[in-house]
């Protein structure tokens, strides 16, 4: 559905003597039809520039971009406008027209596409039901909450039956609960309409919850790419590890664990990580039944992703040396990831 | 009562001059509104980082606006005499004042339009572009509606300035309340006539302000 090959975007700086800014460098990327594809990176990583090139709001300096069968870097004028009606976008700050009601905002892209008034009204009613905004049709954006505004944004984006939906930090201005409800809506739309979704974010939570595949961006380049669960299992680059830790290790975990380890004074603290089907195996039961060790569960978490669950468990293990090393050997044999955090 | 307070005021003439002032103000406000929006849009759209970014055009329009905004109105009337003669074929009467009024006020208003347009959230324009809108659609359905309260409060201020300009135009022969206050009142030492004309001007200004404020607050849904 979307294919990028060797795409670069370089901004020439107007200040004398300063280097041109390479916002995006040599990116190759393919997004399949019906996929939810996530791009994660910190601000300045080039993800905003990248997503804006997908609908021609920015033109690449180099390389080719094809979206829904159109070569975006080559078309302009009316053909580009036509293409944009098939590639919708939703925004971090919603970008609704304050002078229009909910209904009129949703009708706006239909007016642009030249749909007749009667058809517009029907379509708008359908969309209002789809995003769950019944009863608020005549409200102005200033009377809506953030989540409701984004629902209007989504309805507006879907009005012309697009093939691709681009989400530019669509949940970054929302609170966690609203974020989840918007993500549920996006997933629902993806399943029901078979819409291809590309989203950019700096929150791993968003990737974990709805994305099938993820690309990690740093310094204008894609440094890691793969199925979400695989990236969770084997993050390669340090930046990816940090993003994965957003989910697996809430900030205070490290402090808590080292504090506890210091209190125990003996034994070892181990981090186990499970992915896919392994997450449901009774490893701990086996451990205490078959080895003479004491196991203390310190902290655990299971995070479901679109391709299976990913879990982490911090345990404290105590016993005589021979038993502990036999237990470790068992853990090493099973397919789970282990990492010794503290060994007193 | 009124006869005592205003012994020299001829009410029929006062009414007639009021209508003349309203005529000059009305026509010039409408023309300024249209011309100012066109100039303001051009200034905005050719500005840095905008849809029609074009530095030479932006500079030329900017210079034109700045020059005509800076010339004192009383001098502008004199300067525009040949231009006025060419267009309306007379130098006397309310019609003769219109070209100067419009040329004086439109650049002033154009700057206000440009400022109003710059206040529009860039994201909204980007959203319209991302939907495949053409520039004319963006102008009519995004730029103008989204800045309308500011456009209306701007034209209110401009209209009040124009009432003042008509008074000056009146002194050089255009008629209206300014002419009445100056020639009939001041120069013939009839203070009551000057005072009556002033009161009417004030009433006109208050009404314009009231209408402008009412429309602005009705339009603003933010």
Structure overview:
The complex is a heterodimer of chains A (344) and B (222). Chain A has 344 residues and is an alpha/beta fold. Chain A has helices spanning 47-54, 77-86, 102-112, 117-131, 146-158, 176-193, 204-210, 228-233, 238-248, 253-264, 283-290, 321-333; strands at residues 2-11, 21-31, 36-40, 62-67, 70-71, 87-91, 164-168, 196-201, 213-218, 221-227, 268-275, 294-305, 308-318, 337-343. In chain A, α3 packs across α4. The longest helix of chain A is centred in the middle third of the chain and has 18 residues, at 176-193. Chain B has a single domain (11-219), classed as MetI-like (MetI-like fold, Orthogonal Bundle). Chain B contains 10 helices and no strands. In chain B, α3 (55-70) crosses α6 (94-118) and α9 (177-186) runs antiparallel to α10. At the A-B interface, α2, β6 and α3 of A face α7 and α8 of B.
Oligomer designation: heterodimer
Order of helices and strands of chain A: EEEHEEHEHHHEHEHEEHHHEHEEHE
Q: How far apart lie the N and C ends of chain A?
A: 54 Å
Beta percentage of chain A is 25-35%
Largest sheet of chain A: 6 strands, mixed
- Number of E-type strands of chain A: 14
Rg for CA atoms of chain A:
24 Å
Task: Summarize it.
The complex is a heterodimer of chains A (344) and B (222). Chain A is an alpha/beta fold and 344 residues long. Chain A has helices spanning 47-54, 77-86, 102-112, 117-131, 146-158, 176-193, 204-210, 228-233, 238-248, 253-264, 283-290, 321-333, and strands at residues 2-11, 21-31, 36-40, 62-67, 70-71, 87-91, 164-168, 196-201, 213-218, 221-227, 268-275, 294-305, 308-318, 337-343.
């Amino acid at each position: 559905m979307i294919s990028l090959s060797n795409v670069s975007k370089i901004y020439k700086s107007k200040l004398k003597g300063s280097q041109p800014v390479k916002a995006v460098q040599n990116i190759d990327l393919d997004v399949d039809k019906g996929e939810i594809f996530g791009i994660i990176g910190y601000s300045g990583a080039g993800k905003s520039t990248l997503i804006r090139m997908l609908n021609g709001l920015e033109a690449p300096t180099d390389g080719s971009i094809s979206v829904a069968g159109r070569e975006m870097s080559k078309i302009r004028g009316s053909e580009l406008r036509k293409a944009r009606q098939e590639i919708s976008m939703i925004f971090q700050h919603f970008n609704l027209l304050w002078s229009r009601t909910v209904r009129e905002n949703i009708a706006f892209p239909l007016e642009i596409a030249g749909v007749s008034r009667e058809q517009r009204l029907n379509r708008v009613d359908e969309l209002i039901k789809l995003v769950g905004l019944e009863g608020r049709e005549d409200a102005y954006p200033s009377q809506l909450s953030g989540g409701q505004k984004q629902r209007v944004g989504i309805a507006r984006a879907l009005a012309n039956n697009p093939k691709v939906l681009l989400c530019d930090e669509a949940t970054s201005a929302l609170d966690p609960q609203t974020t989840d409800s918007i993500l549920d809506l996006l997933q629902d739309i993806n399943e029901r309409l078979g819409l291809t979704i590309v989203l950019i974010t700096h929150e791993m939570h968003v990737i974990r919850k709805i994305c099938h595949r993820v690309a990690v961006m740093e310094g204008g380049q894609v440094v890691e790419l793969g199925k979400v669960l695989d990236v969770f299992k084997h993050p390669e680059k340090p930046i990816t590890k940090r993003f994965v830790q957003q989910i697996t290790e809430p900030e205070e975990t490290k402090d808590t664990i080292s504090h506890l380890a210091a209190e125990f004074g003996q034994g070892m603290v181990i981090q186990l990580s499970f992915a896919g089907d392994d997450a449901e195996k009774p490893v701990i039961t086996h451990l205490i039944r078959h080895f003479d060790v004491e196991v203390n569960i310190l902290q655990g978490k299971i995070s479901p992703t679109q391709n299976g669950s990913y879990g982490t468990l911090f345990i404290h293990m105590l016993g005589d040396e021979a038993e502990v090393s036999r237990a470790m050997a068992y853990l090493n044999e099973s397919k789970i990831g282990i990492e010794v955090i503290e060994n007193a | 009562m009124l006869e005592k307070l205003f012994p020299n005021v001829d009410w029929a003439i006062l009414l007639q001059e009021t209508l003349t002032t309203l005529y000059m103000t009305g026509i010039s406000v409408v023309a300024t509104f249209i011309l100012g929006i066109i100039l303001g849009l051009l200034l905005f759209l050719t500005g840095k980082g905008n849809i029609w970014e074009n530095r030479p055009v932006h500079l030329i329009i900017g210079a034109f606006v700045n020059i005509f905004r800076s010339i004192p109105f009383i001098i502008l009337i004199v300067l525009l005499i040949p231009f006025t003669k060419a267009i309306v074929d007379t130098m006397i009467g309310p019609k003769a004042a219109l070209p100067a009024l419009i040329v004086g006020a439109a650049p002033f208003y154009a700057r206000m339009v440009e400022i109003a347009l710059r206040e529009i959230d860039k994201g909204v324009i980007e959203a319209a572009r991302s939907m495949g809108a053409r520039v004319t659609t963006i102008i009519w359905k995004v730029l103008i509606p989204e800045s309308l309260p500011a456009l209306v409060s701007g034209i209110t201020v401009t209209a009040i300035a124009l009432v003042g300009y008509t008074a000056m135009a009146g002194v050089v022969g255009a008629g209206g309340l300014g002419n009445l206050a100056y020639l009939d009142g001041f120069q013939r030492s009839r203070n009551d006539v000057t005072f009556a004309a002033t009161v009417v001007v004030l009433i006109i200004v208050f009404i314009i302000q009231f209408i402008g404020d009412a429309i602005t607050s009705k339009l603003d849904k933010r």
